[in-house]
Amino acid sequence: MREHLRRFKREFKQGFISGLLLLALIAAVLFGLGFWASWDTDLAYAPLIVMVAAAAVTLVIAEYIFALQARFANPLPRQWKLAALFPWRAFGCTLALIGVDIVALGLALFVPFVRVLMLIFGLSWVFYAKSLILLWGFRKYGGYGEVERTTYVNADSGM
What we know:
The chain is mainly α and 159 residues long. It contains 6 helices and no strands. It is globular and about 60 Å long.
């Protein structure tokens, strides 16, 4: 618990600011999509295509921003730059993450039993599957730098 509280205190500010920035980015993209989709002219197609591309970029940034914060120690601007560039560097990992999202959403929409499981267990199984994919994607980038010494005590250690 002590390790969790220490990391929470250390990373809360950066995570909160990233969450607010991501929320503002999502709101801007959704507003742009709604605005340009409501126009019924040929002039609206070009901005609508740009907004769909912005929605795709926002999706992949949302997939990586908090995972990069948890895995690597970077200042906020570099973290956002990495979240915008890493999905293209590890494109297979990005496709797998989006695939997990699509499969989970499809199962939740079309299989009633999975809906019940999602109500009981939440999205933890989706996040667990995505964490395994993220570990695979970060594998060749995480071997450098000082390793943080753990301070937790194993529950089976008899303490």
